[in-house]
Write a structure and sequence with these properties.
Oligomer: heterodimer
Mean pLDDT of chain B: 96
Strand content of chain B: 5-15%
Shape of chain A: elongated
Strand content of chain A: 5-15%
Largest sheet of chain B: 6 strands, mixed
Mean pLDDT of chain A: 93
CATH topology of the largest domain in chain A: Arc Repressor Mutant, subunit A
Shape of chain B: globular
Order of helices and strands of chain B: EHHHHEHHEHEHEHHEEEHEEEHEHHHHH
Number of strands of chain A: 4
Structural class of chain B: alpha/beta
Radius of gyration of chain B: 22 Å
Largest sheet of chain A: 4 strands, mixed
CATH class of the largest domain in chain A: Mainly Alpha
Helix content of chain B: 40-55%
Number of helices of chain B: 17
Number of strands of chain B: 12
CATH architecture of the largest domain in chain A: Orthogonal Bundle
Distance between the termini of chain A: 37 Å
Strand order of the largest sheet of chain A: 2-1-3-4
Amino acid sequence: MAGATATSYTDQIVYTDEIADFSPEIIAEMESHLAKYPPERKRSALIPLLMLVQRERGWIDNPGVNFLAHFLDLEVTDVWETATFYSMLNMRPVGRHHIQICKTLSCRIMGEPEITEHICSKLGVHPGETTEDGKFTVSLVECLGSCGTAPMMQIGFDYHEDLTTEKVDQILSSLG
Amino acid sequence: MEIKAIGCEPLQLKRVHLENGHTLKVYQQTGGYESLKKALKMSPADIIEEVKKSALRGRGGAGFPTGMKWSFVPKDNPKPKYVVCNADESEPGSFKDRYLMERDPHSMIEGMIIAAWALGSNTGYVYTRGEYKYLIDIMDVALAEAREAGFLGRNVLGSGFDIDIHTHTGAGAYICGEETALLSSLEGFRGHPRMKPPFPAVEGLYASPTIVNNVETFTSVPQIIEMGGETWRSLGTEKSGGTKLWSISGHVKRPGVYELPMGYADMEKFIMEDCGGMLRDDKKLKAVIPGGSSVYIMNAGQILGKNVTLDYEGLVEAGSMLGTGGMMVMDETVDVVDTTKNLTEFYKHESCGWCTPCREGTDWLVKIFTRITSGGGREEDIQLMLDLCDNIEGKSFCPLGDAAAWPIQSAIRQFPDDFKNWIANGASSNGAH
Protein backbone atom coordinates (compact mmCIF):
# COMPACT_ATOMS: atom_id res chain seq x y z
CA MET A 1 0.00 0.00 0.00
CA ALA A 2 3.02 2.29 -0.16
CA GLY A 3 2.27 5.53 -1.92
CA ALA A 4 -1.36 5.59 -0.79
CA THR A 5 -3.28 8.68 -1.83
CA ALA A 6 -3.34 11.50 0.70
CA THR A 7 -6.48 11.40 2.81
CA SER A 8 -7.38 12.94 6.15
CA TYR A 9 -6.07 10.55 8.79
CA THR A 10 -3.47 8.76 6.82
CA ASP A 11 -1.98 11.40 4.57
CA GLN A 12 1.58 11.05 5.79
CA ILE A 13 1.60 7.37 6.51
CA VAL A 14 3.79 5.18 4.37
CA TYR A 15 2.44 1.69 4.93
CA THR A 16 4.99 -0.88 5.87
CA ASP A 17 5.21 -4.31 7.45
CA GLU A 18 8.08 -3.14 9.62
CA ILE A 19 7.58 -3.84 13.30
CA ALA A 20 8.85 -1.33 15.84
CA ASP A 21 11.52 -2.40 18.27
CA PHE A 22 11.36 -1.52 21.97
CA SER A 23 13.93 -1.93 24.72
CA PRO A 24 13.45 -4.60 27.42
CA GLU A 25 12.60 -1.81 29.90
CA ILE A 26 9.78 -0.55 27.70
CA ILE A 27 8.53 -4.08 27.10
CA ALA A 28 8.48 -4.57 30.88
CA GLU A 29 6.49 -1.36 31.25
CA MET A 30 4.04 -2.65 28.65
CA GLU A 31 3.74 -5.94 30.51
CA SER A 32 2.91 -4.06 33.70
CA HIS A 33 -0.05 -2.46 31.92
CA LEU A 34 -1.15 -5.80 30.52
CA ALA A 35 -1.10 -7.32 34.02
CA LYS A 36 -3.96 -5.02 35.07
CA TYR A 37 -6.53 -6.85 32.94
CA PRO A 38 -7.82 -10.44 32.79
CA PRO A 39 -5.47 -12.55 30.62
CA GLU A 40 -8.15 -13.09 27.98
CA ARG A 41 -8.81 -9.33 27.77
CA LYS A 42 -5.50 -8.13 26.37
CA ARG A 43 -7.21 -5.56 24.17
CA SER A 44 -8.01 -3.53 27.31
CA ALA A 45 -4.35 -2.50 27.37
CA LEU A 46 -4.52 -1.10 23.85
CA ILE A 47 -5.09 2.58 24.66
CA PRO A 48 -2.51 2.75 27.48
CA LEU A 49 -0.02 1.03 25.14
CA LEU A 50 -0.84 3.37 22.25
CA MET A 51 -0.01 6.26 24.62
CA LEU A 52 3.24 4.51 25.44
CA VAL A 53 4.10 3.94 21.78
CA GLN A 54 3.46 7.62 21.15
CA ARG A 55 5.68 8.62 24.07
CA GLU A 56 8.50 6.48 22.67
CA ARG A 57 8.09 7.18 18.96
CA GLY A 58 6.52 10.66 18.94
CA TRP A 59 3.35 9.61 17.15
CA ILE A 60 1.30 6.58 16.18
CA ASP A 61 3.31 5.30 13.27
CA ASN A 62 2.76 2.18 11.25
CA PRO A 63 5.62 0.12 12.77
CA GLY A 64 4.31 1.00 16.23
CA VAL A 65 0.82 -0.15 15.26
CA ASN A 66 2.24 -3.39 13.81
CA PHE A 67 4.06 -3.99 17.06
CA LEU A 68 0.91 -3.58 19.15
CA ALA A 69 -1.05 -5.89 16.86
CA HIS A 70 1.55 -8.61 17.48
CA PHE A 71 1.93 -7.84 21.16
CA LEU A 72 -1.80 -7.96 21.88
CA ASP A 73 -2.81 -10.65 19.36
CA LEU A 74 -4.94 -8.20 17.40
CA GLU A 75 -5.33 -7.44 13.72
CA VAL A 76 -3.53 -4.34 12.51
CA THR A 77 -6.92 -2.89 11.57
CA ASP A 78 -8.15 -3.34 15.17
CA VAL A 79 -5.33 -1.13 16.36
CA TRP A 80 -5.96 1.51 13.69
CA GLU A 81 -9.69 1.39 14.43
CA THR A 82 -9.14 2.34 18.05
CA ALA A 83 -6.19 4.67 17.50
CA THR A 84 -7.98 6.93 15.01
CA PHE A 85 -10.80 7.64 17.46
CA TYR A 86 -8.83 9.44 20.16
CA SER A 87 -7.71 13.04 19.78
CA MET A 88 -4.54 12.71 21.87
CA LEU A 89 -3.15 10.04 19.59
CA ASN A 90 -1.26 11.79 16.82
CA MET A 91 -1.76 10.22 13.43
CA ARG A 92 1.12 12.26 12.03
CA PRO A 93 4.38 13.51 13.50
CA VAL A 94 4.24 16.56 15.76
CA GLY A 95 6.92 18.99 16.89
CA ARG A 96 9.19 18.36 19.84
CA HIS A 97 6.85 20.49 21.96
CA HIS A 98 3.16 20.03 21.30
CA ILE A 99 1.36 23.19 22.40
CA GLN A 100 -2.32 22.49 22.95
CA ILE A 101 -4.35 25.60 23.61
CA CYS A 102 -7.77 25.06 25.20
CA LYS A 103 -10.41 26.76 23.04
CA THR A 104 -13.61 25.85 24.91
CA LEU A 105 -15.98 28.32 26.52
CA SER A 106 -14.34 29.48 29.76
CA CYS A 107 -10.94 29.82 28.10
CA ARG A 108 -12.58 31.44 25.08
CA ILE A 109 -14.19 34.20 27.15
CA MET A 110 -11.13 34.66 29.37
CA GLY A 111 -8.69 35.48 26.57
CA GLU A 112 -7.91 32.37 24.55
CA PRO A 113 -8.20 34.22 21.19
CA GLU A 114 -5.44 36.64 22.22
CA ILE A 115 -3.23 33.82 23.50
CA THR A 116 -3.70 31.82 20.29
CA GLU A 117 -3.00 34.86 18.13
CA HIS A 118 0.11 35.65 20.16
CA ILE A 119 1.54 32.13 19.99
CA CYS A 120 0.77 31.65 16.31
CA SER A 121 2.23 34.97 15.22
CA LYS A 122 5.29 34.46 17.42
CA LEU A 123 5.95 31.02 15.95
CA GLY A 124 4.76 31.85 12.43
CA VAL A 125 2.26 29.02 12.20
CA HIS A 126 -1.48 28.49 12.08
CA PRO A 127 -3.24 26.18 14.52
CA GLY A 128 -2.58 22.61 13.41
CA GLU A 129 0.83 23.41 11.96
CA THR A 130 4.40 22.65 13.01
CA THR A 131 7.25 25.14 12.89
CA GLU A 132 9.79 24.54 10.12
CA ASP A 133 12.50 23.55 12.59
CA GLY A 134 10.20 20.86 13.99
CA LYS A 135 10.34 22.39 17.46
CA PHE A 136 6.70 23.36 18.02
CA THR A 137 3.30 22.15 16.92
CA VAL A 138 0.32 24.33 17.84
CA SER A 139 -3.11 22.75 18.23
CA LEU A 140 -6.43 24.08 19.43
CA VAL A 141 -8.07 21.51 21.68
CA GLU A 142 -11.32 21.11 23.60
CA CYS A 143 -11.75 21.63 27.35
CA LEU A 144 -8.80 20.41 29.45
CA GLY A 145 -10.44 20.89 32.84
CA SER A 146 -8.73 24.14 33.83
CA CYS A 147 -11.69 26.49 33.50
CA GLY A 148 -11.00 28.19 36.85
CA THR A 149 -7.48 29.07 35.74
CA ALA A 150 -8.35 30.09 32.19
CA PRO A 151 -6.89 30.74 29.71
CA MET A 152 -4.62 27.72 29.66
CA MET A 153 -2.56 25.45 27.46
CA GLN A 154 -0.94 22.06 27.82
CA ILE A 155 2.55 21.50 26.45
CA GLY A 156 3.28 17.81 26.30
CA PHE A 157 1.67 16.74 29.57
CA ASP A 158 2.39 19.96 31.49
CA TYR A 159 -0.46 22.30 32.38
CA HIS A 160 0.21 26.04 32.04
CA GLU A 161 -2.62 28.08 33.53
CA ASP A 162 -3.74 31.68 34.13
CA LEU A 163 -1.91 32.60 30.93
CA THR A 164 -0.94 36.09 29.85
CA THR A 165 1.07 36.91 26.74
CA GLU A 166 4.07 37.69 28.99
CA LYS A 167 3.76 34.34 30.72
CA VAL A 168 3.51 32.59 27.35
CA ASP A 169 6.75 34.29 26.24
CA GLN A 170 8.54 33.07 29.35
CA ILE A 171 7.27 29.52 28.94
CA LEU A 172 8.18 29.31 25.26
CA SER A 173 11.67 30.71 25.80
CA SER A 174 12.30 28.19 28.58
CA LEU A 175 11.74 25.25 26.23
CA GLY A 176 14.77 23.73 24.56
CA MET B 1 -8.01 30.22 42.24
CA GLU B 2 -9.98 29.53 45.43
CA ILE B 3 -10.59 26.10 46.89
CA LYS B 4 -12.83 26.28 49.95
CA ALA B 5 -16.03 25.28 51.70
CA ILE B 6 -18.80 27.79 52.32
CA GLY B 7 -21.81 27.22 54.57
CA CYS B 8 -20.48 23.87 55.82
CA GLU B 9 -17.47 22.19 57.34
CA PRO B 10 -15.19 21.01 54.53
CA LEU B 11 -15.85 17.33 53.88
CA GLN B 12 -14.85 16.81 50.28
CA LEU B 13 -12.23 19.47 50.78
CA LYS B 14 -11.13 18.28 54.22
CA ARG B 15 -7.58 17.49 53.14
CA VAL B 16 -6.93 19.62 50.07
CA HIS B 17 -5.05 22.29 51.99
CA LEU B 18 -3.06 19.93 54.20
CA GLU B 19 0.61 19.56 53.52
CA ASN B 20 1.09 16.13 51.94
CA GLY B 21 -2.66 15.52 52.09
CA HIS B 22 -2.21 13.14 49.19
CA THR B 23 -0.06 10.75 51.20
CA LEU B 24 -1.28 7.71 53.08
CA LYS B 25 0.37 8.99 56.26
CA VAL B 26 -1.58 12.25 56.38
CA TYR B 27 -4.72 10.49 55.16
CA GLN B 28 -4.59 8.07 58.07
CA GLN B 29 -3.68 10.82 60.57
CA THR B 30 -6.92 12.54 59.59
CA GLY B 31 -9.18 9.50 59.94
CA GLY B 32 -8.49 7.87 56.59
CA TYR B 33 -9.33 4.17 56.10
CA GLU B 34 -11.29 4.10 59.38
CA SER B 35 -14.50 3.94 57.33
CA LEU B 36 -13.15 0.91 55.49
CA LYS B 37 -12.47 -0.84 58.78
CA LYS B 38 -16.03 -0.05 59.86
CA ALA B 39 -17.47 -1.11 56.50
CA LEU B 40 -15.71 -4.48 56.56
CA LYS B 41 -17.64 -5.24 59.75
CA MET B 42 -20.93 -4.31 58.09
CA SER B 43 -22.87 -6.50 55.70
CA PRO B 44 -22.91 -5.45 52.04
CA ALA B 45 -26.69 -4.96 52.27
CA ASP B 46 -26.28 -2.60 55.23
CA ILE B 47 -23.72 -0.53 53.35
CA ILE B 48 -26.01 -0.16 50.37
CA GLU B 49 -28.80 0.79 52.76
CA GLU B 50 -26.66 3.55 54.33
CA VAL B 51 -25.81 4.90 50.87
CA LYS B 52 -29.51 4.89 50.01
CA LYS B 53 -30.35 6.74 53.22
CA SER B 54 -27.71 9.36 52.42
CA ALA B 55 -29.63 10.47 49.31
CA LEU B 56 -26.27 10.64 47.53
CA ARG B 57 -26.83 11.26 43.84
CA GLY B 58 -24.17 10.60 41.23
CA ARG B 59 -21.83 13.56 40.98
CA GLY B 60 -20.84 12.99 37.35
CA GLY B 61 -23.76 14.93 35.93
CA ALA B 62 -26.78 12.67 35.64
CA GLY B 63 -27.56 12.74 39.37
CA PHE B 64 -28.82 9.17 39.57
CA PRO B 65 -29.27 7.94 43.17
CA THR B 66 -26.08 6.02 43.99
CA GLY B 67 -27.60 3.55 46.45
CA MET B 68 -30.24 2.58 43.92
CA LYS B 69 -27.60 2.09 41.22
CA TRP B 70 -25.66 -0.21 43.53
CA SER B 71 -28.78 -2.21 44.36
CA PHE B 72 -29.19 -3.09 40.66
CA VAL B 73 -26.11 -5.32 40.75
CA PRO B 74 -27.44 -8.88 40.72
CA LYS B 75 -26.29 -10.86 43.74
CA ASP B 76 -26.59 -14.29 42.15
CA ASN B 77 -24.58 -13.56 39.00
CA PRO B 78 -21.52 -15.87 39.01
CA LYS B 79 -19.47 -13.54 36.80
CA PRO B 80 -16.79 -11.31 38.32
CA LYS B 81 -18.07 -7.85 39.22
CA TYR B 82 -16.26 -4.60 38.56
CA VAL B 83 -16.10 -1.19 40.21
CA VAL B 84 -15.06 1.59 37.86
CA CYS B 85 -14.29 5.17 38.79
CA ASN B 86 -15.17 7.67 36.10
CA ALA B 87 -12.28 10.13 36.33
CA ASP B 88 -12.71 11.23 32.72
CA GLU B 89 -13.65 14.76 33.83
CA SER B 90 -14.20 16.46 30.47
CA GLU B 91 -17.39 18.48 30.85
CA PRO B 92 -16.62 22.08 29.88
CA GLY B 93 -16.78 24.15 33.07
CA SER B 94 -15.99 21.23 35.35
CA PHE B 95 -12.63 20.84 37.10
CA LYS B 96 -13.44 19.65 40.64
CA ASP B 97 -12.38 15.99 40.38
CA ARG B 98 -8.92 17.09 39.40
CA TYR B 99 -8.28 18.58 42.83
CA LEU B 100 -9.70 15.59 44.66
CA MET B 101 -7.37 13.26 42.77
CA GLU B 102 -4.40 15.58 43.12
CA ARG B 103 -4.71 16.32 46.82
CA ASP B 104 -6.78 13.53 48.36
CA PRO B 105 -6.54 10.43 46.15
CA HIS B 106 -6.96 8.04 49.08
CA SER B 107 -10.54 9.22 49.70
CA MET B 108 -11.50 8.04 46.23
CA ILE B 109 -9.59 4.79 46.68
CA GLU B 110 -11.23 4.11 50.06
CA GLY B 111 -14.66 4.82 48.56
CA MET B 112 -13.95 2.37 45.74
CA ILE B 113 -12.80 -0.35 48.16
CA ILE B 114 -15.96 0.06 50.25
CA ALA B 115 -18.08 -0.07 47.09
CA ALA B 116 -16.26 -3.22 45.95
CA TRP B 117 -16.93 -4.87 49.32
CA ALA B 118 -20.61 -3.89 49.17
CA LEU B 119 -20.98 -5.20 45.62
CA GLY B 120 -18.84 -8.33 45.85
CA SER B 121 -16.22 -7.06 43.43
CA ASN B 122 -12.53 -7.89 43.48
CA THR B 123 -11.30 -5.55 40.76
CA GLY B 124 -11.55 -1.82 40.23
CA TYR B 125 -10.36 0.54 37.53
CA VAL B 126 -9.91 4.30 37.61
CA TYR B 127 -10.54 5.51 34.06
CA THR B 128 -8.82 8.88 33.86
CA ARG B 129 -8.72 11.26 30.93
CA GLY B 130 -5.35 11.01 29.20
CA GLU B 131 -4.59 14.70 29.64
CA TYR B 132 -4.59 14.18 33.42
CA LYS B 133 -1.34 12.18 33.19
CA TYR B 134 0.09 13.85 36.29
CA LEU B 135 -2.94 12.71 38.29
CA ILE B 136 -2.53 9.12 37.10
CA ASP B 137 1.04 9.27 38.44
CA ILE B 138 -0.23 10.57 41.80
CA MET B 139 -2.92 7.86 41.97
CA ASP B 140 -0.44 5.12 41.06
CA VAL B 141 1.69 6.14 44.03
CA ALA B 142 -1.38 6.26 46.31
CA LEU B 143 -2.53 2.82 45.11
CA ALA B 144 0.94 1.39 45.77
CA GLU B 145 0.85 2.87 49.29
CA ALA B 146 -2.57 1.36 49.94
CA ARG B 147 -1.39 -2.01 48.65
CA GLU B 148 1.69 -1.86 50.85
CA ALA B 149 -0.45 -1.06 53.91
CA GLY B 150 -2.84 -3.94 53.26
CA PHE B 151 -5.88 -1.88 52.25
CA LEU B 152 -5.64 -3.38 48.78
CA GLY B 153 -4.63 -6.84 47.67
CA ARG B 154 -5.40 -10.23 49.16
CA ASN B 155 -7.28 -10.56 52.43
CA VAL B 156 -7.77 -6.85 53.12
CA LEU B 157 -7.16 -6.20 56.84
CA GLY B 158 -7.67 -9.88 57.57
CA SER B 159 -11.27 -9.82 56.33
CA GLY B 160 -10.82 -12.50 53.69
CA PHE B 161 -11.84 -9.95 51.04
CA ASP B 162 -9.58 -9.47 48.00
CA ILE B 163 -9.56 -6.29 45.97
CA ASP B 164 -7.14 -4.57 43.66
CA ILE B 165 -7.57 -1.27 41.83
CA HIS B 166 -5.69 -0.11 38.75
CA THR B 167 -5.42 3.18 36.89
CA HIS B 168 -6.32 3.26 33.21
CA THR B 169 -5.64 6.13 30.84
CA GLY B 170 -7.99 7.50 28.22
CA ALA B 171 -6.59 9.27 25.18
CA GLY B 172 -8.79 12.28 24.53
CA ALA B 173 -12.53 11.72 24.03
CA TYR B 174 -15.31 13.54 25.89
CA ILE B 175 -17.76 10.78 25.05
CA CYS B 176 -15.84 8.40 27.32
CA GLY B 177 -17.37 10.21 30.28
CA GLU B 178 -20.63 8.52 29.27
CA GLU B 179 -20.50 5.30 31.25
CA THR B 180 -21.12 2.78 28.47
CA ALA B 181 -18.69 4.54 26.12
CA LEU B 182 -16.19 4.51 28.96
CA LEU B 183 -16.57 0.74 29.22
CA SER B 184 -16.08 0.30 25.45
CA SER B 185 -12.92 2.36 25.74
CA LEU B 186 -11.75 0.40 28.79
CA GLU B 187 -12.07 -2.73 26.67
CA GLY B 188 -9.77 -1.15 24.06
CA PHE B 189 -12.37 -0.10 21.51
CA ARG B 190 -13.51 3.21 20.07
CA GLY B 191 -15.52 5.10 22.67
CA HIS B 192 -18.94 4.25 21.35
CA PRO B 193 -21.85 4.13 23.79
CA ARG B 194 -23.86 0.94 24.14
CA MET B 195 -27.57 0.31 24.13
CA LYS B 196 -29.24 0.45 27.55
CA PRO B 197 -30.70 -1.79 28.85
CA PRO B 198 -28.86 -3.87 29.77
CA PHE B 199 -27.44 -1.32 32.18
CA PRO B 200 -23.80 -1.67 33.25
CA ALA B 201 -24.93 -2.87 36.70
CA VAL B 202 -26.13 -6.01 34.92
CA GLU B 203 -23.86 -6.15 31.86
CA GLY B 204 -20.95 -3.74 31.94
CA LEU B 205 -17.23 -4.33 31.61
CA TYR B 206 -16.58 -7.63 29.80
CA ALA B 207 -20.37 -8.16 29.93
CA SER B 208 -20.09 -8.52 33.72
CA PRO B 209 -21.97 -6.56 36.39
CA THR B 210 -20.22 -3.19 36.73
CA ILE B 211 -20.76 -0.05 38.75
CA VAL B 212 -19.45 3.18 37.26
CA ASN B 213 -19.37 6.20 39.58
CA ASN B 214 -17.78 9.64 39.45
CA VAL B 215 -14.73 10.54 41.58
CA GLU B 216 -16.74 12.80 43.90
CA THR B 217 -19.37 10.08 44.32
CA PHE B 218 -16.71 7.68 45.56
CA THR B 219 -15.08 10.27 47.85
CA SER B 220 -18.50 10.74 49.48
CA VAL B 221 -18.76 7.06 50.44
CA PRO B 222 -16.25 7.00 53.34
CA GLN B 223 -17.97 10.09 54.78
CA ILE B 224 -21.35 8.36 54.62
CA ILE B 225 -20.02 5.23 56.33
CA GLU B 226 -18.27 7.32 58.97
CA MET B 227 -21.21 9.51 60.02
CA GLY B 228 -24.13 7.36 58.85
CA GLY B 229 -26.31 7.93 55.82
CA GLU B 230 -28.98 9.91 57.64
CA THR B 231 -26.51 12.38 59.14
CA TRP B 232 -24.76 12.85 55.81
CA ARG B 233 -28.06 13.45 54.08
CA SER B 234 -29.07 16.05 56.64
CA LEU B 235 -26.12 18.21 55.58
CA GLY B 236 -28.13 18.84 52.43
CA THR B 237 -31.81 18.63 51.65
CA GLU B 238 -34.36 15.84 51.80
CA LYS B 239 -33.84 14.80 48.17
CA SER B 240 -30.29 16.07 47.58
CA GLY B 241 -28.11 14.81 50.39
CA GLY B 242 -24.74 15.98 51.59
CA THR B 243 -22.41 18.62 50.23
CA LYS B 244 -21.40 19.24 46.63
CA LEU B 245 -18.36 20.61 44.86
CA TRP B 246 -18.95 23.44 42.42
CA SER B 247 -16.43 24.50 39.82
CA ILE B 248 -16.89 28.16 38.99
CA SER B 249 -15.19 29.92 36.11
CA GLY B 250 -15.56 32.86 33.76
CA HIS B 251 -16.23 36.46 34.71
CA VAL B 252 -16.06 36.32 38.52
CA LYS B 253 -13.35 37.73 40.78
CA ARG B 254 -12.69 34.48 42.61
CA PRO B 255 -13.12 31.45 40.36
CA GLY B 256 -12.38 28.08 41.89
CA VAL B 257 -13.73 24.93 43.51
CA TYR B 258 -16.27 25.53 46.28
CA GLU B 259 -17.92 23.02 48.53
CA LEU B 260 -21.48 23.99 49.42
CA PRO B 261 -24.20 22.14 51.28
CA MET B 262 -26.94 20.97 48.94
CA GLY B 263 -29.74 23.51 49.03
CA TYR B 264 -27.36 26.44 49.51
CA ALA B 265 -29.19 29.75 49.28
CA ASP B 266 -28.78 31.27 47.00
CA MET B 267 -27.20 31.32 43.56
CA GLU B 268 -27.05 35.13 43.42
CA LYS B 269 -25.27 35.34 46.77
CA PHE B 270 -22.85 32.62 45.67
CA ILE B 271 -21.86 34.42 42.49
CA MET B 272 -22.06 38.01 43.70
CA GLU B 273 -20.60 37.61 47.20
CA ASP B 274 -18.88 34.27 47.77
CA CYS B 275 -17.12 34.30 44.41
CA GLY B 276 -16.39 38.01 44.67
CA GLY B 277 -18.94 39.24 42.16
CA MET B 278 -18.31 40.26 38.60
CA LEU B 279 -14.70 40.25 37.42
CA ARG B 280 -15.05 43.80 36.09
CA ASP B 281 -17.09 45.99 38.44
CA ASP B 282 -18.61 48.03 35.64
CA LYS B 283 -19.93 45.01 33.76
CA LYS B 284 -23.27 43.45 34.54
CA LEU B 285 -24.09 39.75 34.78
CA LYS B 286 -25.52 38.48 31.50
CA ALA B 287 -25.60 34.70 31.54
CA VAL B 288 -24.74 31.65 33.64
CA ILE B 289 -24.42 28.03 32.60
CA PRO B 290 -24.78 26.45 36.05
CA GLY B 291 -23.95 22.78 35.61
CA GLY B 292 -21.34 22.27 32.92
CA SER B 293 -21.88 22.98 29.24
CA SER B 294 -24.58 20.33 28.82
CA VAL B 295 -27.34 22.21 30.67
CA TYR B 296 -29.65 25.10 29.81
CA ILE B 297 -28.06 28.54 29.80
CA MET B 298 -29.74 31.03 32.18
CA ASN B 299 -30.11 34.79 31.78
CA ALA B 300 -29.55 37.22 34.66
CA GLY B 301 -33.29 37.62 35.16
CA GLN B 302 -33.62 33.94 36.08
CA ILE B 303 -31.06 34.37 38.86
CA LEU B 304 -31.03 37.88 40.35
CA GLY B 305 -33.65 38.29 43.06
CA LYS B 306 -35.03 34.81 42.40
CA ASN B 307 -33.61 32.96 45.43
CA VAL B 308 -32.42 30.03 43.36
CA THR B 309 -31.22 27.28 45.70
CA LEU B 310 -28.19 25.29 44.63
CA ASP B 311 -29.39 21.70 44.50
CA TYR B 312 -30.91 19.38 41.90
CA GLU B 313 -34.49 20.58 42.47
CA GLY B 314 -33.71 24.29 42.82
CA LEU B 315 -31.93 24.52 39.50
CA VAL B 316 -34.63 22.58 37.65
CA GLU B 317 -37.21 24.94 39.10
CA ALA B 318 -35.12 27.89 37.93
CA GLY B 319 -35.03 26.51 34.40
CA SER B 320 -31.76 24.64 34.21
CA MET B 321 -29.97 21.69 35.81
CA LEU B 322 -27.25 20.97 38.35
CA GLY B 323 -25.28 18.66 36.03
CA THR B 324 -21.69 18.45 37.25
CA GLY B 325 -21.86 21.78 39.08
CA GLY B 326 -19.53 23.37 36.54
CA MET B 327 -20.76 26.94 36.68
CA MET B 328 -19.66 29.32 33.93
CA VAL B 329 -20.41 33.00 34.52
CA MET B 330 -20.57 35.51 31.68
CA ASP B 331 -20.83 39.29 31.80
CA GLU B 332 -22.43 41.63 29.31
CA THR B 333 -19.38 41.72 27.04
CA VAL B 334 -20.25 38.20 25.92
CA ASP B 335 -22.25 37.48 22.80
CA VAL B 336 -24.39 34.41 23.38
CA VAL B 337 -24.39 33.48 19.69
CA ASP B 338 -20.61 33.28 19.88
CA THR B 339 -20.56 31.27 23.13
CA THR B 340 -23.21 28.86 21.87
CA LYS B 341 -21.33 28.43 18.60
CA ASN B 342 -18.24 27.62 20.68
CA LEU B 343 -20.11 24.89 22.58
CA THR B 344 -21.69 23.53 19.40
CA GLU B 345 -18.23 23.19 17.88
CA PHE B 346 -17.27 21.28 21.03
CA TYR B 347 -20.16 18.82 20.64
CA LYS B 348 -19.49 18.43 16.92
CA HIS B 349 -15.86 17.59 17.67
CA GLU B 350 -16.79 15.20 20.47
CA SER B 351 -19.71 13.45 18.77
CA CYS B 352 -18.49 9.89 18.43
CA GLY B 353 -20.09 9.44 15.01
CA TRP B 354 -22.01 6.34 16.00
CA CYS B 355 -25.53 7.64 15.40
CA THR B 356 -26.74 9.88 12.58
CA PRO B 357 -28.78 12.56 14.41
CA CYS B 358 -25.86 13.60 16.61
CA ARG B 359 -23.08 13.19 14.04
CA GLU B 360 -24.86 14.98 11.19
CA GLY B 361 -26.94 17.32 13.32
CA THR B 362 -24.02 18.87 15.19
CA ASP B 363 -22.20 19.34 11.90
CA TRP B 364 -25.11 21.18 10.32
CA LEU B 365 -25.61 23.29 13.44
CA VAL B 366 -21.99 24.46 13.29
CA LYS B 367 -22.46 25.30 9.60
CA ILE B 368 -25.50 27.45 10.41
CA PHE B 369 -23.72 29.19 13.30
CA THR B 370 -20.79 29.90 11.00
CA ARG B 371 -23.10 31.36 8.39
CA ILE B 372 -24.74 33.61 11.00
CA THR B 373 -21.44 34.85 12.45
CA SER B 374 -20.08 35.44 8.96
CA GLY B 375 -22.87 37.93 8.43
CA GLY B 376 -24.98 35.70 6.19
CA GLY B 377 -27.64 34.68 8.71
CA ARG B 378 -31.20 34.32 7.46
CA GLU B 379 -34.36 34.90 9.45
CA GLU B 380 -35.41 31.29 9.06
CA ASP B 381 -32.10 30.08 10.50
CA ILE B 382 -33.41 30.26 14.07
CA GLN B 383 -36.31 27.94 13.30
CA LEU B 384 -33.98 25.74 11.26
CA MET B 385 -31.69 25.35 14.27
CA LEU B 386 -34.62 24.55 16.54
CA ASP B 387 -35.85 21.93 14.06
CA LEU B 388 -32.39 20.37 13.93
CA CYS B 389 -32.22 20.33 17.74
CA ASP B 390 -35.63 18.70 17.83
CA ASN B 391 -34.32 15.96 15.55
CA ILE B 392 -31.32 15.35 17.80
CA GLU B 393 -32.87 15.64 21.27
CA GLY B 394 -34.23 12.31 22.43
CA LYS B 395 -33.45 10.76 19.05
CA SER B 396 -29.75 10.14 19.44
CA PHE B 397 -28.15 7.02 20.85
CA CYS B 398 -26.78 8.60 24.04
CA PRO B 399 -27.18 11.83 26.02
CA LEU B 400 -24.43 13.65 24.09
CA GLY B 401 -27.04 14.53 21.49
CA ASP B 402 -29.35 16.04 24.11
CA ALA B 403 -26.38 17.91 25.54
CA ALA B 404 -25.69 19.43 22.12
CA ALA B 405 -29.30 20.51 21.64
CA TRP B 406 -30.04 22.02 25.05
CA PRO B 407 -27.52 24.90 24.98
CA ILE B 408 -28.88 26.04 21.61
CA GLN B 409 -32.56 25.71 22.52
CA SER B 410 -32.05 27.62 25.76
CA ALA B 411 -29.81 30.27 24.18
CA ILE B 412 -32.47 31.02 21.57
CA ARG B 413 -35.13 31.10 24.30
CA GLN B 414 -33.25 33.27 26.80
CA PHE B 415 -31.21 35.49 24.48
CA PRO B 416 -33.35 36.03 21.37
CA ASP B 417 -31.93 39.52 20.80
CA ASP B 418 -28.38 38.25 20.37
CA PHE B 419 -29.57 36.03 17.52
CA LYS B 420 -31.82 38.69 15.99
CA ASN B 421 -29.02 41.24 15.99
CA TRP B 422 -26.66 38.96 14.12
CA ILE B 423 -29.30 38.09 11.58
CA ALA B 424 -30.60 41.63 11.07
CA ASN B 425 -27.26 43.45 11.15
CA GLY B 426 -24.70 40.77 10.34
CA ALA B 427 -22.93 41.73 13.53
CA SER B 428 -22.99 41.17 17.25
CA SER B 429 -25.14 43.44 19.39
CA ASN B 430 -22.25 44.48 21.61
CA GLY B 431 -19.27 44.43 19.31
CA ALA B 432 -18.06 41.13 20.67
CA HIS B 433 -17.64 38.29 18.29
